[in-house]
Amino acid sequence: MKIGNFNLKTDGTFIIAELSANHGGKIEIAKESIRVAKEIGANAIKLQTYTADTLTLDSDNEDFIIKGGTLWDDKKLYDLYKEAYLPWEWHKELFRYAREIGIDIFSSPFDKSAVDFLEQFNPSAYKIASFEITDYELIRYTASKGKPIIISTGIATIDEIQDAVDICRDAGNNDIILLKCTSAYPAALEDANLKMIPSLGETFGVISGFSDHTLGSTAPITAIALGAKVIEKHFIIDKSIGGADAEFSMDKKEFADMVKAIRDVEKLLGKVDYSMSEQKKKSRQFARSLYVAKDIKKGEVLTEENIRSVRPSFGMHPKYLNDVLGKIADKDYEFGSRF
């Protein structure tokens, strides 16, 4: 599967910088965020395309007041989304700018109108946010556009995940990526359950990855070691910008350090390879082989005293030692010579 020009099979981990609400209400900050994300090694910048009215109702009913120990407790849903949203009139310039500097860009639509709006920019993929995984009509409509579809599984039951995958496939879209996600902001390490990453891939026959809301980079780095092919992390140039998501977002240095660590882990993981590389061949000189441990005259018996397995490896392979011992020397051998 490819997202834009990035091949998920051959090009390593696809790292997404999630802009979310980290634009301070200024398009200049949004553009600078895109530039910095490119500079520090992100493969893509991701937007969120919604308005307060496409997400919720402007209601003072108690149901619409946030509770539950979140960063946004006691705030009205409508007010939070009105503060956090990225103006739709910015999208054209942000898509243009990202493509001009060579970083991929796409978005999370939160309703059908957002999908229709985003289609004019021909995004390389679509992302379904974790809280939207139960919106089957949104998934169906988004999948029908034929772009790779990335779905966070944060709040979903196993049946809902299966439903989402089936809906995409029924719409003729098999380019599906499921992201393990803990929908808490920030998320506790003990709630990450990263072992689900390989399970998602195996259970649903898709590519799996990780949308991270923990603090720091331990979780995404570990996710790579468990097989995650996509990492999504909230990104802010500088936390002094503030905003709804600033507290659990990575700043420039943190994100750059994470990218470097991920690329280092990729190098460490390498590939399954039993062949003899040049480095292996070079290092084999320090392996053992059979050498003459004391002078041997023709006709003498070869014993553990005069034939030994020692370093280096230029003599006979040690596996032949028991075959050699007890035999009669067919010629003279000098101490330190290869056998």
For the record, the count of structural domains works out to 2
The CATH architecture of the largest domain is: Alpha-Beta Barrel
| Rg computed from alpha carbons, rounded to a whole number of angstroms | 29 Å
- Gap from first CA to last CA: 54 Å
* Class from helix and strand fractions: alpha/beta
Q: What do we call the CATH homologous superfamily of the largest domain?
A: Aldolase class I
Q: What is the number of strand segments? A: 12
Query: Which geometry do the CA atoms define?
Result: elongated
As an assembly, this protein is single chain
List the helices and strands and how they pair.
Elements: E1 2-3, E2 6-7, E3 14-18, H1 27-39, E4 44-49, H2 52-55, H3 77-84, H4 91-101, E5 104-109, H5 112-119, E6 126-128, H6 136-143, E7 149-152, H7 158-170, E8 176-181, H8 196-204, E9 207-212, H9 218-225, E10 230-234, H10 252-269, H11 278-283, E11 289-292, E12 307-310, H12 321-324
Parallel strand pairs: 3-4, 3-10, 4-5, 6-7, 7-8, 8-9, 9-10
Antiparallel strand pairs: 1-2, 11-12
Helix pairs in contact: 1-4, 6-7, 9-10
